[in-house]
Amino acid sequence: MFTETVRQAFQAIIRNAMRSFLTILGVIIGVAAVITMVTIGQGSTDQIESDVSKLGTNLLIVRPGAGMGPRSSGRSAPRFTLKDVEAIKEQIPGVIAATPANTSSMTVIYGNENHQATITGVDNDFLIARDWNVALGREFYESELRAGTATCILGETVRKDLFGAGDPVGETIRMEQISCRVIGVLEAKGASSFGQDQDDTVLIPIRTFLRRIAGNQDISSMYVAVEPGYSTEKVQSAIELLLRERRRISSGEEDNFSVMDTKEITSMLTGITAVMTGLLSAVAAVSLLVGGIGIMNIMLVSVTERTREIGIRLAIGATETQVLMQFLVEAVVLSLLGGLIGILLGLGFGYIGSIYMKIPFAPDWTTTFLAFAFSAFIGIVFGYFPARRAARLDPIEALRHE
After folding, report:
1. pLDDT of 180-224, one tens digit each?
2. CA–CA separation, 136 vs 133, rounded Å?
3. Lowest mean pLDDT: which of 66-70, 150-154, 264-268, 295-299?
4. What is the pLDDT of residues 94-126, one digit of tens each?
5. What would the DSSP string read from start to end of 51-87?
6. d(CA 48, CA 42)
7. What's the predicted TM-score (pTM) here?
8. Which of 46, 70, 118, 323 suits 208 as a labelling partner, its CA being 20 to 30 A distant?
9. Burial (0-12, 13-18, 19+ Cβ within 10 Å), 376
10. DSSP-assigned letters across all residues of 103-158
């Protein structure tokens, strides 16, 4: 009996194909929009997590100033020193690498080629903290770090712009007035979550940077890598206590530095993405309600058009329940068709969007199932009232209807 009811529902839908399509258009748009937004939002979240992980795992970033944002007081706060870096290495349990990192933008020249790059003064712990490998050549010798020699390791972007596909190891480049011998090339890391090309850099020994570029002994930031198994929160607290002591900050004063866990950056960015995805999905979900109202309206029209048919069915013995099921199943089938088409379109648009935005294609199958189930719910809720109206028609009055 139920199979026959479904067959009749499909016949009614096919008989009025254009009207049926227009009826479920709202459901199609709603489901497609929700799935597209959620897919792109999940892909953006995955991309953010991947990008932040490129900074390094279990990584803490230490900077002068009370905050990490544009309102931080980093410029007026006292800078760090190399002794601060050594103190963190020696006195904080669980630290596998602590490295200074001073940066400056300079023009790098090789032959007739030049390139504007970020010059970063570091030591070898920088490669450990940032989980970065030397793809070609070698890292700095300890003697080069101690003496502050003019040696450098190129990022992949700098290598391509200055040397093309050639091997730069052993060549000499100029950073404005500084001649520097290339000893290695870093593996490619790509862009960060903030759109910055991480490969557009040149690493030089920190003492070389301080003496020949900065002209002072100030350290502008530090990277601290925490050993796996140790709590980054505990290490962060220990660093804060140590730096407060070294910077002679009394108990009533605020820190004039900040220690941020890269997990906090991930949480902040993914939180923003989740909120935006939720808002856009909520707006898109309104289309589902509009689609449900459209189904109800068209089913009411269908009941009016088929009043005589309903009267005949009731007159020859059909029960109210059977008539109600006929129209209710028709509404649910319409809604499910809209949901199925919407899912296919949503996944398609999500895939296209992921390619265009260069993010992973990450469909949320739970959301996809819920969208399909909700489309069925829409059909039941908004199809019930027309179906009940059809089932309660008086057979005699229905047969008289023109």
Report:
1. 999 999 998 876 555 578 889 999 999 999 999 988 999 999 999
2. 9
3. 66-70
4. 899 999 999 999 999 998 888 999 999 999 999
5. HHHTT-SSEEEEEESS-SSTT--TTTSPPB-HHHHHH
6. 10
7. 0.61
8. 70
9. middle
10. EEEEEEEETTEEEEEEEEEE-THHHHHTT--EEEE----HHHHHHT-SEEEE-HHH
* List of residues 6+ apart from 219 with CB closer than 8 A: 79, 80, 81, 82, 84, 85, 100, 101, 102, 206
* Residue 395 scores a pLDDT above 70: no
Which backbone phi and psi does 116 adopt, to 5 degrees? -85, 120
Closest C-alpha to 222, from 126, 346, 104: 126
Query: Which has the closest alpha carbon to 9: 284, 400, 295?
Result: 295
Residue 138 makes CB contacts below 8 A (sequence gap 6+) with 183, 184
- The pLDDT mean for the chain works out to 81
Task: Tell me the residue type at 378.
Answer: I
Burial of 369 (0-12, 13-18, 19+ CB in 10 A): exposed
Q: Would you say 295 and 335 are in contact if contact means Cβ atoms under 8 Å apart?
A: yes
| Separation CA 330–CA 4 (nearest Å) | 12
> Token digits for 166?
């050639």
pLDDT-derived band of residue 74, with 50, 70 and 90 as boundaries?
Answer: very low
Q: For 376-387, write each residue's pLDDT tens digit.
A: 887 777 777 777
Q: How many residues does the chain have?
A: 402
Which strands form 59-64's sheet, in the order they lie side by side? 95-100, 222-226, 59-64, 257-261
Instruction: Compute the distance between CA of residue 348 and CA of residue 111 in angstroms, rounded to an integer.
Output: 49
User: Binning pLDDT at 50, 70 and 90, where does residue 332 land?
Assistant: confident
**Residues in a beta bridge with 97:** 225
Which SS3 state, helix, strand or coil, does residue 204 take?
Answer: strand
Q: Please give the pLDDT value at position 56.
A: 54
Helix (H) or strand (E) holding 100: strand 95-100
Phi–psi pair at 320, nearest 5 degrees: -60, -35
CB-based contact 203:152 (threshold 8 Å): yes
DSSP conformational letter for 256: S
Per DSSP bridges, beta strands 113-122 and 201-205 are parallel
